[in-house]
Write a structure and sequence with these properties.
This protein has helices spanning 27-37, 100-111, 128-134, 149-157, 163-167, 179-185, 216-225, 241-248; strands at residues 7-13, 20-25, 55-65, 68-77, 82-88, 91-95, 118-122, 141-146, 172-176, 191-196, 226-236, 253-263, 266-276. The protein is an alpha/beta fold. Strand 5 (82-88) and strand 6 form a beta hairpin.
Length: 278
């Protein structure tokens, strides 16, 4: 059973949707967690040992696929609100406590294109990137490509409470597929904007197989499906110079723009890697 670094299991009761895990936050555990989360700004990171609280994790849903285990669970902090958390093979993916980076990706990408009528988003997460894209009245259709069928199901059936509301927008179109394959199979000049929020860039992969998404063949497919004036946008935790080099060999204009993001009351820097088609 996956654990956060430095956390000690205090109690387990039941299985499946009734699973409950209590973790006692120790001083040493908090310090190790802080070191771990320095590479993953989306993770919850207490600022001070005095903030240590008893935290209860309640499993909401679990699914297995060829890529491993996907778990949706609720995080309840003593004296605070409950948040929904998504994990893949024990690795934190995102939660609904902090989604400013997802919104920042979509907002910055939409600014790059004059008429983003057709938008493709690689990776659903908990739907916040898609939701921000659909908030733009210029968008006529937002296609979201998500490889995990179970996650799409949780969004559709209300397991993720806000999922049905987000997907009720008639402009939202969800495809269960690997985004690399979806790009390869898409018709030429199908999209005005392609956003990749599958990982936190090529150096921070959710699954090792995602590495091919950042290689020349997939980048070439991304360019092929873009219309003149369109753009590919990759959200990354670092500047990813190798990816930028590969993009430069495919796109007409390539840029890396640092973006300040406020996460958990602290300032972080992400990178917006863009490839444009003239």
């Amino acid at each position: 059973m996956p654990t956060l670094p430095g956390f000690l299991p205090a109690q387990r009761a039941g299985l499946g949707t009734s699973l409950r895990e209590l973790w006692l936050w120790t001083v040493d555990g908090l310090r190790r967690q802080q070191r771990h989360t320095s590479r993953s700004p989306r993770l919850h990171r207490p600022h001070d040992v005095r903030e240590a609280l008893l935290v209860e994790y309640v499993e909401v849903a679990r699914a297995e696929s060829e890529r491993g285990e996907l778990v949706l669970r609720e995080r309840r902090e003593e004296g605070g609100p409950a948040f929904l958390e998504l994990r893949a093979n024990g690795v934190f993916v995102m939660d609904n406590a902090e989604f400013t980076s997802e919104e920042a990706l979509a907002s910055a990408a939409l600014e790059l294109v004059d008429t983003p009528r057709q938008v493709l988003v690689g990776g659903m997460g908990l739907g916040f990137t898609m939701h921000r894209v659909l908030a733009d009245p210029r968008v006529e259709r937002c296609t979201v490509v998500e490889i995990e069928e179970a996650l799409v199901g949780w969004m559709r059936d209300g397991t993720v409470p806000h999922g049905q509301t987000m997907l009720a927008d008639e402009r939202a179109h969800v495809v269960v597929a690997d985004v690399t394959d979806a790009l390869a199979e898409a018709a030429p000049t199908s999209y005005d904007l392609v956003l990749l929020d599958v990982d936190n860039g090529p150096s921070f992969l959710v699954h090792e197989s995602n590495a091919r998404l950042y290689e020349s063949d997939s980048l070439g497919d991304a360019r092929r499906v873009l219309r003149p004036g369109g753009a590919l946008v990759v959200w990354s935790m670092d500047r990813a110079p190798e990816l930028l080099g590969a993009m430069a060999g495919v796109f007409d204009d390539v840029a890396a723009q640092p973006r300040a993001v406020r996460l958990q009351e602290r300032d972080e820097e992400y990178w917006l890697l863009t490839g444009r088609v003239r």
